[in-house]
Amino acid sequence: MIKANNVHKYFGKLEVLKGIDMEVHPGEVVVLVGVSGSGKSTLLRCLNFLELTNEGTITIDGKKVNQKKDNLAKVRAEVGMVFQHFNLFPHKTVLENVMEAPLMVKKMEKSKVKTMALDILEKVGLSDKADVYPNKLSGGQKQRVAIARALAMEPKALLFDEPTSALDPELVGEVLQVMKDLANEGMTMVVVTHEMKFAKEVADRVIMLNEGVIIEDADPDTFFNHSKNERTRQFLEMVNV
Amino acid sequence: MPVPEIFVTFYEVFMQTYKGFLKAGLLTIEITAIAVVIGTVLGVIFALMKISNSKILQTIANLYITLIRGTPLIVQIMFLYFGITSIIVLENFWAGAIALGIHNGAYIAEIFRGSIQGIDRGQREASLALGMNSSQTMRRIVFPQALRRAIPPLGNQFIITLKDSSLVYVIGVSELFGLANRVAASNFKQFETFLVVGLYYLILVLIFTALLKWYENKLDVDK
């Protein structure tokens, strides 16, 4: 579904990604972990072309993306993204947030979009908030709207960039539950997170980044219980699992 | 106690001139309104040029803003009036309004540029990540939010425009200040006449300020 080949990314002279190779298969949930500055968020943003790679290729659903020539908006329309700080549109209601992209990008009929948007809001448990503006929502509700907004484009895969890091602890659960449900429905997901419990329970694979390099790529059981990698074990000790 | 002389003459001047000043006031409002529309349109265009990726567009916008901000409005009015009327026939009213509009465009461009760049980067990213293209992102997501932010400084700029419209008297437009000049020259009561015209400007500004405040409150409530 998503494939990165020898991806390099520089910010000025600083090399943030040093030749990343990874593949995410359809229906797979891959969790990206690593200390801050390891490049995991940058990698995720490269997969959606919010950052352009300096070298290497990214393949989405079998098509190698040419960053210069391809219509990146079209590519992005097929891969959803959920941000740490939600980034909901504050001048639009919850419903309008969810309806915006299908209306503008897919040019779908308004009544159909509305029905679909309400269905999705129902799914994330927020149909009663449809006509509310985002500033009236809690962090957890905001993030569920953000997930609904991404789902409305019927993406082939979803990228999550630390979706629970900006939440109060008691609100983390409701967001993780929505993500679990999605995983169970077979959504392809790449998740950057510090929620190790989520990684253990939901991930098919855990990928560990360190200084711009993938140092481990394993199933959760191996990763958490039998890792032979020194850095991984240090990291797991640090995050206390 | 007798009423002081100044109040009597002020009252006389007021009563003798109010019909003319009401007409002139309408002209002032018209010139301001036209200048505000032209200025806002130019402001949006040049703000977008300035934040675009094209070096050429950026240079054009910078040149425009530098020239306008670097020269007095009265010179721009004269320059444009004699420049345009040497090519096409144009009423001095329109020449004045257009000059004032072009002048305002530069300041409004800077207001819009600031408010667009003040919108959180995440808004643009979220929009792009949904598959919207750059122009949809600007039009639907970034600009509406920037506009909200721009309203207080825009209102301020519009008040400046209203007052600056007095300068078109130099090309012979009989708006408030132009008329005051003529009246003062004929009745020799300069002090009272300019007091009267000052009052008219003050009233217009106060009305506009109140409207602006009402609109800002309405926006706050809506959100």
Automatic annotation (TrEMBL), chain A:
The keyword Nucleotide-binding applies. Residues 2-236 form the ABC transporter domain. Keywords: ATP-binding, Nucleotide-binding, Transport. It comes from the Bacteria. CDD domains: ABC_HisP_GlnQ. InterPro entries: AAA+_ATPase (IPR003593), ABC_ATPase_HisP-typ (IPR030679), ABC_transporter-like_ATP-bd (IPR003439), ABC_transporter-like_CS (IPR017871), MetN_ABC_transporter-like (IPR050086), P-loop_NTPase (IPR027417). One of its GO terms (molecular function) is ATP binding. Gene3D superfamilies: P-loop containing nucleotide triphosphate hydrolases (3.40.50.300). Transmembrane segments: none annotated. PANTHER family: AMINO ACID IMPORT ATP-BINDING PROTEIN, ARGININE TRANSPORT ATP-BINDING PROTEIN ARTM. This is Amino acid ABC transporter ATP-binding protein. The lineage of its organism: Bacteria, Bacillati, Bacillota, Bacilli, Bacillales.
